[in-house]
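chain and backbone:
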Amino acid sequence: MLLSACSSSGSAGSVDRLGSDAPTVAGVNPVTPSGGSVNATIAPTTGPEGAAGRLAMRTYQNWWQAQTEAFGRTDSDGIALETYSSGKALSDTLIGLRQLHDAKLVMTGAPRNSAVVTAVDLKADPHTAVIEDCLDVSDWHRVDAATKAAREPVGRVNRYVATASLRWFQARWLIYDFERKADRTC
């Protein structure tokens, strides 16, 4: 669940290892993975796969920006998240947002990440892409919406590997699954 493992999103930008000049995510700062625990393979960076990978990365960056905005407000319904996600990724995020609001909490600060496209399959129907990320949420905190007092969960993991699976749907990428691997550090 988003709230138990994560406290996330920010303004220097996600690292786009595909060499695109895609805009960076405001509030999401890059973090350097340690010792090869993430990003072992990188998808092609040229040709149709490279172009598709850059679009997938932009969707991923925009999804984090939408999460940052939604989780930072007490009155957000998370509707912007539907632009970038569907399926399990969307439902898990909306459940986390609802739980946060029910507890009268918001997120402050921003996560840092180092995302790379590790796979693009343009032969699949629908097309698919996979993004692996090293998330560092040590600067993204749950706080009481009224008092701004910290309300971090016990045993929170601050830095871990995550994988986003995307599908091409109606001429755009959508994140349909997002898996946190809190047992893998980066």
